[in-house]
């Protein structure tokens, strides 16, 4: 895979959000529509192509905690706000080489997390649980060794304590468990077929209507191939 090979040749340990989501999309994992912009002259055309409201984020392999560093702007609704957000984010990157992601704003009240870790003994393991700030606070997660079958993915959904979040609640549709199970299966496939990928962190996965969509993602590389 070209993105992966290029990053490894450069000696990098992480992929940017844009690179990470490009890999996810190549495995049929639904991700946000987005355009990477490097200059202010491209902001408005990109914004019009994606459509308001927008999210704009600093994007670089060297940036892993964008929100904490003030490099995320949400609910951008017009051209002036888009230009201001671009300038603010670029200034906040403090000279770090990178660009700005112009991204569709996904609306949904439910946030999940999907991931992968490569255990030294057991190999790639898929993770599923609550997303957003609750990932670290509650640690309500389930794990399976890859590769996954559909049965494994469905069992993971039922194993978390907050599994009812996937049901029809407070007027919201039930989560499309078929799509979610495919997401979990395909994350496992990425780990199986790319032994230089050490971790995948997809958080949040926002439920838009019934559809799970990867809104943010980080892929971590390991310097040497698995033995």
Structure description:
There is one protein chain. With 227 residues, this protein is of the alpha+beta class. It folds into 2 domains: 2-30 and 108-221, 2-Layer Sandwich (D-amino Acid Aminotransferase, Chain A, domain 1), CATH 3.30.470; 34-104, Dna Ligase, domain 1, CATH 3.30.1490.20. The protein is built from 7 helices and 10 strands. It has helices spanning 2-9, 17-26, 43-50, 79-92, 134-138, 150-159, 177-193; strands at residues 34-37, 54-59, 72-76, 99-104, 111-119, 123-130, 141-145, 197-208, 211-214, 217-221. The strands form 2 sheets. Strands 5, 6, 7, 8, 9 and 10 form a 6-stranded antiparallel beta sheet that branches. A 4-stranded antiparallel beta sheet has the order 1-4-2-3. A hairpin with a 3-residue loop joins strand 5 and strand 6. Helix 6 crosses helix 7. The protein is globular, with a radius of gyration of 18 Å.
